[in-house]
Amino acid sequence: MDITTFTSNKKFWIWGISLLAVLAALATLPQWLGSYYVILLKDILMLVLITVSWVIFSGPTGYMSLASAAFFGVGVYTSALLLPMTGAVLPLLLVIVIAGLVSFILGLLAGALTLRLKGIYFAVFTFGLVLLIQRFLLWFEMNITHTRGRFVLLVEDNTIFYVMLAIFVATLLTAYFIRRSKFGLALQSIGLNEEAAAHSGVNVTRVKVITFAISAVFMGAAGAIYATKLTYIDPYIAFNPLFSFLPVLMAIFGGLGSFYGPIIGAALFSYLQEFLKTEFPFQYMIIFGLLLMAVIVFMPRGLVGLVQRLLASLKEGPEEKSTPGWAIIFCLFGILGGLVGWFIFRERRGARVLLKAGGVVTLIGGAAYLLMFLLTLLGGLGGGYF
Amino acid sequence: METVLNVAVAGLLLGGIFALISVGLSLQYGVARVLNVAHGEFIMIGAFVTWVLYTEFGINPLLCMVIVGPAIFVIGFILYRTMFNYIRIKAPSPDAFEGNSILAAFGLLFVIQYIALTLWGSNIHGYTYLAFPIHLGTVTIAANRLVTLGFAVGISFVFYIFLARTRLGKAIRSAAQDPATASLMGVNIKRVLAICFGLGALMAGIAGVLLSMTYPVNANMGLHYTIIAIIVVVLGGMGSIVGSFIGGFILGIVGSIVSYFDPGLALVAYYAIFILLLLVRPKGIMGK
Amino acid sequence: MSKKILIIFSVIVLLVGGLFVACDEEDDDVNGNGEPPVTKDEIIFGGSRPITGGNAIWEEVGFGPLYRLWISEVNAAGGLYIAEYGTSLPIVYEGYIYDDTSDIGTMTRQLERLMTVDEVDFVLSPASTASLFAGAPIFSKYEYVMLCAEGGATSIEDQLYALPYFFGVLNYSNRYQLPVFADLCLELGIDEVAMIWIQDLHGIEYAGVAATEFANAGIEVLMSKSVPPDVSDVSLLLLEAQASGADALCMFAYPDQNFLIIGTMIGMGINFDAILVGPGGNISALPGIFGPNIEGLMFEGAWNCNSTPGAQAFCDLFDSVYPPGTGDWWGHILYWGGVQFFEQAIVEAGTLDNTVIRDVMATSTFDTVLGPTWFDMFGDGGGLLAIECHAGEIGQWQNMVPEVIDPPNQYGEKRTADPWYPKPDWPTE
Predict the structure, then answer these.
(1) Tell me: the pLDDT tens digits for B88-118?
(2) C10 touching A, CB under 8 A?
(3) Does residue A333 share a domain with residue A211?
(4) Is C144 in the same domain as C155?
(5) Cα of A30 to nearest chain C Cα, Å
(6) Whole-Å CA distances, A190 to A252, A382, B94, C262
(7) CB 3.0-4.6 Å disulfide test: which of A79, A371, B160, B168 passes with A224?
(8) What residues in A contact B87, CB-CB < 8 Å?
């Protein structure tokens, strides 16, 4: 890897300096934020870094890995074993490193075993890995150690935050350099056409396995530090399949094409979840579900796709207009759903909820529609979305 | 010998259930290209509606299939004809459509679960129907499980005939193989894919009706069935009803054999089969 | 469509949507989130509860209905009298109940939010044993009283000395269900049992404690097999249990598995002289699901409307508010006793300062629906509800009604009816 190719690039410096500024700002946050926001930020950083490390491998190659929860869980469990509540066996930072290493080794093994599989077969097998490790650990704990869950050492919130921030930075740098290196090119050529890549001299298996393992390192490290906040661990908590699906959803939400898409997607997605769970606890599911559907319908290339499209149409003028079908249907569904829900279930729990949810849907649809429409009038965004 | 017979019978009964929940997803993923992670939610809806109809209106659960099936078909048809079809048209490539449709299906999962939670709450429900033993020689079988197996085999057979013999079935099969060519040959691809998705949902609904006779019903029951269905569909080969049918029975029988020794290892066994079969036949049992 | 129509349409849509959202506003946000009240005119309870996800059943039939009932009762009576303010303050919880989606990480984060951002006066217990364990250090760190509801396990007992704000209410395996069950087996002459348990902390704990208790009582365990949470078929296990010739079958699993086991037993006509059903056997929806088949089933719990002098009044109150099928014959009376105890401790302390209330709770005995109620304290740490205060440990469905069948022991006489033994055959349809 030739470092001068980076230092001579103007864009690299602009991005680098602005990134440093953002990081510096992040690093001082605990000084003036309450502990809840520090924790929230830490969790958002964690989800972003898991998403970014998922994208390191799955983005360019197109192999949809669902093994994230396995790597993450291995980290959680390493922490539970080496940092028990009764007293740390090893220093915290060393445990984080070890967790990363264990995940790396698991990544190597899993990669070597499964990368012959393609497409959905690969996805299903990697997901199976999560359940396999979970069940094996359960069996082991039940029959060999006879433990019933493990308590993990309490660590200062700020310490957790800074460790997570450090892992976050390491992930971003690694992702960036892999993307920009020959390695990244090799990965992309694999994604485009694996056989052609092999013919042009890429050691396909080695590149895939190593990248897969590298992407596992950060998930493991993140899991290890996450465990110290959970304080109580069992195999079901550690190997939560949710962490397999979240990075995929977040990356698609942000847009897979670019480097910053998954970052923005994951950050927004995780904040949105927290916001809905606390502000709309009884409507969380429906709002979140409709939002997911709306995002895909309105923004098939994720947030980044939308932004790119907006920029392009600002430069080149509006696109061809078509009928504004979807937004209207969306709004009508919201209104109808709300009203029908209200009339049918007036006497039951959830009547007002349905009405409110209908309102929210209508508002989202209406607002999105109006925004797009105004933009069209201004000559900005094309009506192609309708 | 008696033990072997018991294990075989239990395996067949379980396999029938697995086949039943997988055939629908096989259509949805194999032909309509939607890896519908909300598949289990349609099963849940079918089970809940049956529970309501049986406990509050006294309608025979088997009769419920006639009510639930068409209703869910219409929902599935509309969903594909509007949302998924729109996503398909907007997606830059078939791969992008697969990814996007998973995300949309996740959204659907949340929405359906929310509706179920609002209507029926998170409590656990159930009813007893046809819960009496049938003795066949030395083997004892619960009547409701036998009925489930019968319907699983019967409905899958009807489906197979439908795909193999009817005009619509041929259109569906041609759409599965090559959508572009099929539409050139005069197949209304939008309609055919929507029918496929609707039929998949219908199968899920019917599976829900039958499952509610033996399993407890609650709003969180779906995901578990979705995972099994995905394994079976991949195992059986994409878009092959017969493959899913056989795959379901293989999984059920192996699951029962392993469960006889240690039920905790059933899942491990499923994955072992999965890997072994993929090594022998990389595209599934009936894959081409 | 012309542009004008489109704009008018959008505006109408926005107005209607806004109306929908706004019409709910007055009920939902009494206080506005995040702003601590300047003057004290209400007591705020917050909570991170499983509104969705796998634990959501507990928010519907566990502690959920009880805290809502309790708060509405307190408010109907004019609120809680707090001496420090010289007046009675109503309790508010709307807008401060968050959805933890049955995820531990989310739960711990939301607890932290309630305690440091919202600065609520009290925080309700999260649901499930794992949540209690993960939440306990946070409650202690921010000095909030943790009146636990759903959950409890032996493994917390070692930690309790360092968790002064932990007040466990629910009974569990060695406290004091399984010792009582072993005694019951001796009384009924059960000397061989089969166990099916879930591969989960709950299953490991109950199977482990049961093995010890049965060994002490000289009862032989003929079969002990575990099932995964997603088990699809239990017919082979049941055939094996039947073939083992055991007198009793114990299911230490969750409702999903337990109901599948019961359903399969009915379907295959497999019966035992005694059948102990774990969590799920106690819910009042059970008669609706299995009908007359529940006759003679034993369950972990336990209480009924005759268990204590105050129980009938509580039953009537509960039934007047909630539909049938939302009751719980294990935890409800304990949770109710817990909140009544808590209420009296707050009034006695005369302040909303959790540290003062904690000390009152640690040292006092109050009269509740359970009778005289107190906590066994673990040194300077937390406490567990005294075993003497439990309404019962093992129940049995008799004539479609739950009865407590504990044999008398050093903690008192809790039996409400003599046990049926052997269990009657499954009724034929």
Answers:
(1) 888 878 878 888 888 889 899 999 999 999 8
(2) yes
(3) no
(4) yes
(5) 14
(6) 20, 35, 18, 53
(7) A79
(8) 296-297, 300
